[in-house]
Amino acid sequence: MTRDGADFPHKPALLAAGAFCLALLTAIPAAAQTPAQQPQPAKPGMEQAASMMGGHARLKGASHQRHMDTVAFIAGNMLFVLLHETGHALVTEMGLPVLGREEDAADAYATVTMLKLGSSFSNRVLVEAAKGWFLSAERNERRGNMLAFYDEHGLDWQRAYQIVCLMVGSESDQFKQLADWVQMPEDRQDSCAGDYSNASWSWDMVLKPHRRAGDQPKTKIDVVYGEGKGKLAIYERAFRAVGLLETVAEFNADNYVWRAPFTIEVQSCGEPGAHWDLKEHKLHVCYEMAEEFLNLYQDVSAERTKPNRMAPNNVLARNIRHLRLQHSMSMEKLADAAGLPRAWMGRMEAGQETATKSQLDKLARALNMQSAELVALASSADMPGPAPMPRRLKKR
Q1: What's 31's DSSP letter?
Q2: Which residue, 255, 280, 305, sits at the end of a domain?
Q3: Are residues 247 and 103 located together in one domain of the fold?
Q4: Engineering a disulfide at 276: which of 88, 90, 129, 373 sits with its beta carbon 3.0 to 4.6 angstroms away?
Q5: What pLDDT shows up at residue 298?
Q6: What is the rounded CA–CA span in Å between residue 115 and residue 126?
Q7: Are 19 and 45 in contact, with CB atoms under 8 Å apart?
Q8: Residues forming beta bridges with residue 265, ordered by sequence position
Q9: Does residue 2 lie in a domain region?
Q10: Cβ neighbours of 98 (radius 10 Å)
């Protein structure tokens, strides 16, 4: 296992995508860079993509740097998604064993692959991917969205921290500042070396028989940019400008002997999503995924500075709803346990009623709490009002 790219003898395919790669360096804190990692001017393709994104309704009036940062965030997360789905494709096409959840293995593949490339660009992709999961978790918390503990994917916080863990585990001196910045405890940072070693060694071992030698023919991997419909047309043009799909296709063709040719396609789907289709032999990605990343990047920034606060009765309603769900109680069961009318309980959870001290006392006793705790939860909230749960990104 090396960090110099020896595990990827044909790594230039990813590293050569200069227009896409170099622009990702612009947001790395100067204190975290070695001289070789200092930002370089973005290539024309990335500048062109940023210029295109300036026409998006949510970016009108924003600075050029804001456009560049947004494109870097979208591009980094989209590349991570493509590599994540490549991990799924490798599992099915090569018949690889998976110990644990395949979604975790696919995240590890994407992260380890970027780390083995060992460039400023590949490190930046991982920073953007981790940032994406941190922002997603923050947005869900601000909106009061419930955590999907049952999901086949890990929680957003967990996926973000595991990317950082594998980074610091691969080279603690280089990535310790990042781990400290996201407040990863020292003892966890120390254990990350084992996480990285296991993930790296495991993927190396299972992929070793499928590495392409220099004299072996390359598998044909087609790329298809479907029509970006309506407001999604901007992403079609931007992805073409940076050669997003070609970058991943060339990497896969250069490094692996695949069972059969396949296609990487981006298209308008009607909702965010990405998945490997075994039957069609196609890696699908949706333009809506990029729109979701743009909205995520913009939403959290807006919510952090939004002056309006949720009304106390709405905060209280949200907190009580969360608490009763944690106790596996229906609204009717909580009302009965508190000795309160079910109809009132329904209006209270809808934010249409303000609870009196007596009613708070009854609710707190039913929830095994002190009424002061409920009051404190309501009075200290500074997040915006709850929003509908966004559609979960499929197979990301």
Answers
A1: G
A2: 305
A3: yes
A4: 88
A5: 87
A6: 8
A7: yes
A8: 224, 284
A9: no
A10: 15
Q: What is the CA radius of gyration of the chain?
A: 24
Of residues 330 and 5, more confidently modeled: 330
Strand partners, 264: 223, 283
Q: What percent of the chain has pLDDT over 70?
A: 77
Q: Do 339 and 286 have their domain in common?
A: no
Looking at the structure of the chain, the number of domains it has is 2
Cβ pair 259, 253 in contact under 8 A = no
pLDDT of residue 30: 29
- 265 with 370, same domain: the answer is no
Strands 274-277 and 282-286: antiparallel
- The number of CA neighbours under 13 Å toward the Cβ of 50 is 23
Q: Is the same domain home to 293 and 345?
A: no
- Structure token digits, residue 319: 């907190």
What is the number of helices (H) and of strands (E) in the chain? 17, 4
For 149, the domain range is: 12-305
Confidence of residue 162 (pLDDT cuts 50, 70, 90): very high
pTM of the model: 0.69
Residue 391 within a domain:
no
175 with 291, same domain? Answer: yes
Is residue 196 within 8 A of residue 170, CB to CB? The reply is yes
Number of Cβ within a 10 Å radius of residue 220:
12
Question: Side by side, which strands form the sheet with 262-267?
Answer: 221-225, 262-267, 282-286, 274-277
E-assigned strands of the chain?
221-225, 262-267, 274-277, 282-286
The answer for 258, left when phi > 0, alpha when psi is -120 to 50, beta otherwise, is beta
Largest distance between two CA atoms of the chain: 80
Is the predicted pLDDT of residue 88 greater than 80, yes or no?
Answer: yes
Per-residue tokens: 354: 């303000």
| Amino acid letter, residue 288 | E
**Average pLDDT value for the chain:** 79
Whether the per-residue pLDDT at 379 is higher than 50: the answer is no
Boundary-marking domain end, from 281, 305, 329: 305
Nearest one of 109, 91, 125 to 204, comparing CA atoms: 109
Q: Are residues 75 and 173 in the same domain?
A: yes
Which tokens go with 258?
A: 């695949």
Q: Which two tokens stand for residue 30?
A: 């100067």
Helix (H) or strand (E) holding 336: helix 331-338
